[in-house]
Structures are given as C-alpha cells and as structure tokens.
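INTERNAL AUDIT FORM
Audit reference: QA-55
Scope: verify that the stored structure record matches its stored sequence.
Auditor: D.O.
Record contents follow.
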Amino acid sequence: MLERAKELIAGTARTPQQLTDAFWQACHGGQRRMAAYLLALGAELDGTPSWEESTPFDAAESLGTGRAALLTWLREQGAKHSTKASA
C-alpha cells in the first residue's frame, strides 16, 4: 500500500481503478486519513479492487478491533457492504 500511496502523491497513478485499489488498501489497513485523501481524489466509495469482491467497508470491518473510527467515517460517507463478498 505504501508504494501505491507514494505513486498517488507523486501524481503518477490516477486511473479510477488505481484510486479504488489504493482506497480499498487504505481501508483494509485502517488508514482513515489516507482513505479520505483517496476518496477526495476520486476513489469509488463502494468500489471493489481488481483482486477482490469485497468493498472497502467490508475490508475495514473484517479486521476487528481498532477500526471503529474508520468504520464510523465510512458509514458517514454512505459506504455499504458488498452483496458478493463473504468477508
């Protein structure tokens, strides 16, 4: 995730799927500030990454404790669970 974030900050990765992939990774890692940054850049709130069918909300929720602030923020943004994911 760090490399993807560096690419985004440097301005080299800007496709919608790259933003969504990085957003999912930030949510999976509990990185709320990075998630907010990527969402502002155009990441899809309920988008799925190229390798997974779960949404960023699913990814953040599956990690257990320590993610309450990120989950609350995602809910406030209107994030939803995937209907396909089992995570």
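Auditor finding: record pair retrieved intact. The CA atoms of residues 54 and 61 lie 11 Å apart.
Action required: none
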